[in-house]
Amino acid sequence: MLPAWIDAGGTMANLRTGIAMALATAFILGARPRASLTSNMLLALLLLALAEGGQLLIPTRGATLGDLVWGTAGVLLAGAVAAAVRRRTTLSRPRP
């Protein structure tokens, strides 16, 4: 099954949201390479809002501020990495 640290509550539970959102953002950025970084990150933040808001509809689940904070941090981290990679690949291209 899951390792104990993944199944733990508290900060670890919120950190899982951050990791999941960083991966989701990376996937969105890879799937939409021609879209702007800003629009892709807004799409990832919308996904986070839908996921957390959807938990309000499930009686045994609940949205938490910690999930929103860690999820937003995951989106921002993935966006920063993507921006750095784009900048580096743009700078390394030979000019005509």
Largest sheet: none
What's the rounded overall pLDDT mean? 84
Structural class by helix and strand composition = mainly alpha
- What is the straight-line distance between the termini? 54 Å
How much of the sequence lies in strands comes to under 5%
Based on CA inertia axes, which overall geometry fits?
elongated
How many distinct beta strands? 0
pLDDT < 50 runs, ≥5 residues: none
The ordered string of helix (H) and strand (E) elements is: HHHH
Helical region count?
4
Please state the CA-atom Rg, rounded to the nearest Å: 16 Å
Helix content: over 70%
Question: Which helices and strands, and how do they pair?
Answer:
Layout: H1 4-7, H2 11-31, H3 37-55, H4 65-92
Question: What attributes characterize this protein structure?
Answer:
single chain; 96 residues; mainly alpha; 4 helices
Provide structural commentary.
With 96 residues, this protein is an all-alpha fold. It has a domain at 66-90. Helix content is 75%, strand content 0%. The chain contains four helices and no strands. The chain has helices at 4-7, 11-31, 37-55, 65-92. α3 (37-55) runs antiparallel to α4 (65-92). The protein is elongated, with a radius of gyration of 16 Å. The relative contact order is 0.17. The model has no long low-confidence stretch (mean pLDDT 84).
Task: Describe this structure in a few short sentences.
The chain has 96 residues and is mainly alpha-helical.
